[in-house]
Specification:
With about 290 residues, the chain is an alpha/beta fold. It has 12 helices and 13 strands. The C terminus is likely disordered.
């Protein structure tokens, strides 16, 4: 049995799917009660537990072989909450814990990176018998949310400028790598980067989207205005895109290639697998 937290989000659901494809039993932790057909249809056991609230985690860990800890994105409690959960896992005798971090958490100019950096430091000192860390780059799926607007306008809005690049990684590859770290031996104490195989600028991403849609697409530089927001989530987003604009966010695919036993998907391959019927496209790269 493998416990996956934040299983109601896109990352958690993808990890549940990857584990179930391997035949693993999964206990999917969600924060609110209610129907979860996307998880129950996969055969996962769904339990409700709030990461930031005191509770008997020993019940969640009962009979578990491992946990994949995903903390909700841009949550201000991660720096303190994740170490507290590491301690709960140690007290419960959990055999293995894998922490979902981020590529280059030491970039503390971004508050959500700083929180993960602190959590990784605490994990090293946690006393857990077996732990591993996965550090993904930005997801290719983050661009997918724009595709309908891109199809309508012919414009890809880039909040990270037009010159610097990102190594976009397909979430399915991240989830498969997580499944490897959760189930295979010989990886304890390891920190594993998960970056896509290409460093792409926004204009290069627009070119690949244009090829997939079969219509012209250009990248537009969306420069943020005003002061940095005061909310934690707003500050995280602004400082993240400011950093991407100045420095990009790229990494090497070598580690992910080794975990997967194959090269990670390119952005074009990611796009080719999308069902774009709602945009009036008949198939990959083919206008309807």
């Amino acid at each position: 049995m493998i416990v996956v937290t934040a299983a109601g989000g896109q990352t958690g659901a993808a990890v549940v799917r990857a584990l179930r494809a391997r035949g693993e039993q999964v206990r999917a932790v969600v924060s609110r009660r209610g129907p979860r057909p996307e998880l129950t249809e996969l055969g996962a056991e769904v339990v409700v537990a709030e990461l930031t609230q005191p509770m008997a985690w020993s019940k969640v860990f009962a009979g578990a072989d491992a946990m994949y800890l995903i903390w909700p994105n841009f949550d201000p409690d991660e720096a303190e909450g994740a170490p507290a959960l590491f301690a709960e896992a140690r007290r419960a005798g959990l055999p293995r814990l894998v922490y979902h971090s981020v590529l280059r958490p030491q970039l503390r100019v971004m508050p959500h990176h700083a929180a993960k950096d602190q959590a990784e430091e605490a994990l090293d000192a946690s006393g857990l018998r077996s732990w591993r860390v996965l550090q993904p780059c930005s997801y290719a799926e983050n661009v997918d949310t724009q595709l309908e607007a891109v199809h309508a306008s012919g414009v890809l809005r880039s909040f990270w400028g037009l010159r610097t690049a990102q190594s976009l990684v397909d979430l399915r590859d991240v989830a498969e790598a997580a499944a490897v770290l959760l189930t295979e031996d010989g990886l304890d104490g390891g920190t594993f980067e998960a970056a896509g195989p290409e460093a792409l600028t926004a204009p290069e991403i627009a070119e690949r989207i244009a090829a997939r849609l079969g219509e012209p697409v250009e990248a537009d530089d969306v420069i943020p205005g005003g002061e940095v927001p005061t909310s934690f989530a707003g500050r995280c987003r602004r400082t993240m895109f400011d950093h991407y604009r100045a420095h990009g966010f790229t990494g090497s695919p070598r580690v992910l290639t080794d975990l997967l036993g194959r090269p990670p998907r390119t952005f074009a391959e990611h796009l080719a697998d999308l069902d774009l019927g709602h945009l009036g496209l008949a198939g990959p790269g083919t206008p309807a």
